[in-house]
Amino acid sequence: MSLSKESTVNFLKLCQRVLHVSRKPDRSEYFNVAKITGIGVIIIGVVGFVVSMIAQLLGQ
């Protein structure tokens, strides 16, 4: 499957548009994203731990 020249040019134009619209997050926005991501990781870890404990209890 080869890419045509038009599709490559269109893709590059879309990339340029995204880069033009995007901006660097400020300090508070960065910390909010970091907090939400951290909370998500903790929740997934707790759920995995609970499932692991239930599996061990049911196995005995």
TrEMBL record:
GO terms for cellular component: endomembrane system; plasma membrane. Keywords: Cell membrane, Membrane, Protein transport, Translocation, Transmembrane, Transmembrane helix, Transport. One of its GO terms (biological process) is protein secretion. The chain crosses the membrane at residues 36-58. It holds the Pfam family SecE. Its main location: membrane. SUPFAM superfamilies: Preprotein translocase SecE subunit (SSF103456). Signal peptide: none annotated. Essential subunit of the Sec protein translocation channel SecYEG. Clamps together the 2 halves of SecY. May contact the channel plug during translocation. Component of the Sec protein translocase complex. Heterotrimer consisting of SecY (alpha), SecG (beta) and SecE (gamma) subunits. The heterotrimers can form oligomers, although 1 heterotrimer is thought to be able to translocate proteins. Interacts with the ribosome. May interact with SecDF, and other proteins may be involved. Belongs to the SecE/SEC61-gamma family. This is Protein translocase subunit SecE. The gene is secE.
